[in-house]
Design brief:
Layout lengths: L4 E4 L4 H4 L6 H9 L2 H15 L3 H6 L9 H24 L5 E4 L3 H9 L4 H11 L1 H13 L2 E7 L6 H12 L4 E6 L3 E6 L1 H14 L3 H4 L4 E3 L10 H7 L10 E3 L5 E2 L8 H10 L4 H8 L6 E4 L2 H7 L4 H5 L3 E3 H6 L4 H4 L7
Parallel strand pairs: 1-2, 1-9, 2-7, 9-10
Antiparallel strand pairs: 3-5, 3-6, 4-5, 7-8
Length: about 325
């Protein structure tokens, strides 16, 4: 029996222009488990009048200029992740689950803390005011983002954070990954000035940091959305069947009703991130960690930390789905101690 962990990444389908890397082989495997997946795939078809497998094979909802299509595509991506996770769960014994931003919707659903239809109809719909603002920020190209990273200097994050507080107040730290790494967001001229200072102060960071990319407003201003948070809290939350590792509220233990499930989920989706805290929570568990997301976003999530920080394999979900009998997936918990 395999004791696995699952990590649901941000749904990157619109950015990637596809739902998965290998649609033909992935869908073939999922269709072989049609009975198991019918409650989820049937709900999707009833809701969107289209088969989720058809959408994955021949996408039509990946129009980044249309907010309604973007939101439906995000749900499609999470449904695909959940289908794969349900199949993998038949062949293993997952003990814990974590996520990144919107990925927590799938994490809560897989663990049973919140049904996926409830997530869509109550939580995801309540998030619409934020989605509108975020989409506008993306289309208007107001913000720039990058990861600053120096794997050679253990004081890097602390020093750069101090410089931001004192000299670059317009910069927002979107994700803390101390001691070597952080993701920052700012207008382009400000971000350029910060990068110049960082590269002068830490020369190794110039070759390890990412390029500047167009950014959205995710995780920057959660205080603007008090009504959204209140709506999150109205959904019905149950006892999770897996531990849920979060970056703001520690671990939600399986079998225990979350004290404030809606507040936890809101903070997981929108509050400033700290992948360092998630990794610190994950190291307590054994067995492989299966990563649901694209290769690009998988690298992005653990940038500066990586599988070495976990001291166990991190597997791509498509690889795990198609190679369930590999030695890594079939190992016992003792093998990871």
């Amino acid at each position: 029996m395999t004791y696995q962990g699952y990590f649901f990444n941000y749904a990157s389908c619109v950015e990637e222009g596809r739902y998965c890397q290998s649609p033909r082989t992935t869908l073939r495997e999922l269709r072989a488990h049609a009975g198991l997946l019918q409650p989820l795939t049937g709900w999707y078809e009833d809701t969107y009048r289209r088969s989720v497998f058809e959408e994955v094979a021949k996408p039509r909802l990946l129009d980044p200029s249309d907010l309604a299509n973007i939101r439906t595509a995000r749900i499609t991506q999470l449904v695909l992740f959940l289908c794969a996770a349900m199949v993998l769960r038949q062949h293993g014994s997952p003990t814990h689950v974590a996520g990144y931003s919107l990925g927590y919707g799938a994490a809560f659903a897989l663990s049973g803390a919140l049904t996926f239809p409830t997530f869509v109809h109550d939580v995801f719909s309540a998030n619409f005011p934020y989605a509108e603002d975020n989409h506008a920020a993306l289309l208007e190209d107001r913000l720039r983002s990058c990861i600053l990273y120096d794997p050679t200097e253990s004081a890097f994050s602390c020093t750069v954070a101090g410089a931001i507080r004192h000299h670059f107040p317009e910069v927002v730290i979107k994700d803390e990954r101390p001691p070597y790494c952080m993701q920052v967001v700012a207008p382009e001229r400000v971000l350029g000035a910060l990068r110049a200072w960082v590269f002068r102060s830490f020369p190794a960071s110039a070759s390890h940091s990412t390029r500047i990319i167009r950014s959205d407003a995710a995780h920057l201003y959660p205080d603007r959305y008090a009504a959204v948070k209140a709506a999150f809290r109205q959904a019905a939350y149950g006892k999770p069947s897996l531990d849920i590792v979060t970056h703001q509220h520690g671990v939600l233990r399986q079998g225990q009703l979350p004290e404030d499930g809606g507040g936890v989920l809101f903070d997981a989706v929108q509050a400033p991130l700290s992948m360092r805290r998630v990794v610190d929570g994950l190291v307590a568990y054994r067995g492989p960690l299966i990563m649901f997301g694209s290769a690009r976003t998988a690298d992005f999530v653990f940038f500066g930390l990586g599988s070495k920080a976990l001291n166990r394999p991190v597997l791509d979900w498509e690889q795990a789905l198609l190679q369930r009998d590999t030695p890594i997936l079939m190992a016992s918990p003792a093998d990871w101690r």
